[in-house]
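Supplementary Methods, section 5.1.

A reviewer requested that the exact input to the structure prediction be made available. We therefore reproduce it here, unchanged from the version used in the analyses.
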Amino acid sequence: MAERHSVKGSLVRKSLGKETTFAKDILDREELVEHAKQLDEKVSLRLQAQKLMPKTITLKVKYGDFKQITRAFSQAQAFTNLKDIEAQLLNMYR
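The structure derived from this sequence is encoded token-by-token as follows.
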């Protein structure tokens, strides 16, 4: 009988994110910023729970016509608080 081998790998998370699709297009910038902050907070809580500290953050926006923009920002040191992440996300959205 053939010997069976099991493969045991260790999963190393490379990214963690949160996306949402709105029922209607959001045209007001301030409303969009508020939704982005809520998503950012959810991701930050997950990062804290898993004791992860990101060095790169990515912003993806998809428009009603399915045009999409993606922007990323990396730094040598990990982001350590929500306010720094929020500030960088707003800067990338401009």
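The chain is about 35% helix and 15% strand. These observations are discussed further in the main text.
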